[in-house]
Amino acid sequence: MNNNIWNKKIKDNFNYAAKNYSKHSLIQKHFTKQILSIINELNISDGDWVDLGAGTGFLADEIEKYFINKVSRLDICNNMLLLNKNGSNKILWDLNKGLHPSIKNPSLLVSNFCIHWLREPKRNLEEWFQKLNKGGKLIISYPTNNCFPEWKTTCKNYGIEYSGLIFPEEKKMIKNFLSSEIISSKNFLYKENYPNIYKLFRSIINIGAQSTKSKKNSVGDFKKLAQYWPTDKYKKVSLTWEINILALQKIL
After folding, report:
1. Considering the domain boundaries, does residue 217 fall inside one?
2. Does residue 154 form part of some domain?
3. 213 found inside a domain
4. Residue 79 is part of which domain span?
5. Going residue by residue through the chain (252 aa), what tens digit of pLDDT does each one get?
6. Region of residue 17 (phi > 0: left; psi between -120 and 50: alpha; otherwise: beta)
7. Number of structural domains, the chain?
8. Are 99 and 128 in contact (CB under 8 A)?
9. pLDDT tens column, 199-246
10. What's CA 57's distance to the chain center, in Å?
């Protein structure tokens, strides 16, 4: 898929979902708590604090609630930024172009469920890290390639093409960092339960996260997914995420 078409697809879906995003972004809010816990344990040098892919501003708001620093909010979606609180520093920008020129001396960069939407997540991560000031910290969360085993197994077993997003691999993301630069890299499982797969996929659409480069499933394939997706004893379906939270520090 052409990069410009892909970017527009992502932006349009998130812009459309912006008004309902805060209501439905439960997994993003869950891992906000993990990021706050990491920040609380760090000694962060003087400099700018920026939330990359800030969305409606939930993470930035929580950081400002517990710490004295103001947090700038950057996102590609104007409708998301408009829902950030009044008076906050908002930056409309496509992170595929690198960091915005106004971000010159960051001591803390955070990003929650954003980097996997970029064309080259590994390269972007390394670029963000290089922009940190000495002693600066970078904390990101992202879904890994081990997400959605129920979905992938059903597709494999019944000859259905997997149509979900391909997520980054943890080992590749941290490959070029020194051990002294990695504060922590931890994976967490998060399971969502739904009455059926129709509501499962609706939950993804509700937050604008349905963009994929894969071919869209046919009606017949979708019916096969609904028929063969594993269920628990209550006939409910699950979707399991593996989320990596990576914390880095700039030594030199």
Report:
1. no
2. no
3. no
4. 3-146+166-190+242-249
5. 677 888 899 999 999 999 999 999 999 999 999 999 999 999 998 899 999 999 999 999 999 999 989 999 999 999 999 999 999 999 999 999 999 999 998 999 999 999 999 999 999 999 999 999 999 999 999 999 999 999 999 999 999 999 999 999 999 999 999 999 999 999 999 999 999 999 999 999 999 999 988 888 899 999 999 999 999 999 999 999 999 999 999 997
6. alpha
7. 1
8. yes
9. 999 999 999 999 988 888 899 999 999 999 999 999 999 999 999 999
10. 13
Q: What is the pTM of this model?
A: 0.95
82 falls within a domain = yes
Q: Which two tokens stand for residue 36?
A: 């706050």
> Could you tell me the two tokens for 142?
């992202």
Which alpha helices (H) appear in the chain, and where do they start and end?
3-24, 26-40, 58-66, 78-81, 121-131, 149-158, 170-174, 197-206, 219-228
Q: Residue 123 to residues 25, 96, 99, 118, 251: CA-CA distances in angstroms?
A: 27, 10, 12, 10, 19
Provide long-range contacts, Cβ within 8 A and 24+ apart, for 62-68: 62/32, 62/36, 63/36, 63/39, 63/110, 66/36, 66/39, 66/40, 67/39
CATH number of the domain that 45 lies in? 3.40.50.150
